[in-house]
Amino acid sequence: MKKTISLLLLLFVTIAAFGQNKTAENFGFRHIVLKYKTDNVDVLIKSKKGEENITKPLFFFCQGSLPQPLIKYNENEVYGVFPFDPDSLAIKYHLVIVSKPFIPIIADTKTLSTNFNYTDSSGNFPKEYSDRNLLTYYIGRNLTIIKYLQKQKWVSKTQLVVAGHSEGSTVAAKMAIKSKKITHLIYSGGNPMGRIMSIIGQSRANETYTDSIKLGEEEIKYWEEVVKNKNDLDGSQGDTHKATFEFSQPPIKYLEKLKIPVLVSYGTKDWSASFNDFMRVDFIRQGKINFTFQPYVGTEHNFFPLTAENKPNYDIFNWDNVANDWLIWINEKQK
Q: Does the predicted TM-score (pTM) go above 0.70?
């Protein structure tokens, strides 16, 4: 059985009126199409209005999992490309986000499936996406994009902040190991022990004493299947085995090698919270002073507090506070 762990929600909504044939520019973004290997790659850039050509450093954001278009809208609403309001960060940075491979950057929500995923006529993730939905692909692609952008006159090379949430945290962490150009890393909502531990943790949390099917045990059996077929690219039922295998290599093994400033943001009610706590305790033991840990007490994966029924309270939106904390931390680390 294939597994896909959905961890990044659509959080920020703006009311607007829409016509037909909208472009990224209509939504306030620059749209650049770059070539990576033989693929066309869609890159969106958010700058402060009127300051698109003013030289600023990049804030490169790696989004979470699933084949969702970056810009999703209906006749009344547009869902935020970033999970936070980017305006405060845009004062200081040009924000960059990259589309999932072979997924359109703009789509009406009525054309999308569950969780606003883009699927083919059979209801599956497109094969072109699944074949490239790999950690190794994203690392090479993203670093190629950064190399191109840093050659532009409106991009400063003095600083390069890379941030990632959920699946994107793993991508961002591995990018920081591969590139000396990255000056600051924000590791948000990640599991330093790898994706499979999040999958198992989620299933364990849903187990009860009377369950006839031990959900966590089923996930471990799934992991055994993944390891035996770690190069399998069948994505018809979710993530391929190859994707799960790559994203399940523990990021803590390369995070601990970093010398640059690193901010670790996580909700204490997230499935991966205990692993981030472990990393925090272990790095204290190692005397690593380049890591800052920012736990958001009582919140889940996307920083929503939990109700008495242990459900996310979507009335309390914390993402903008989290992004503001990121900016405060960056400013502190520049002193």
A: yes
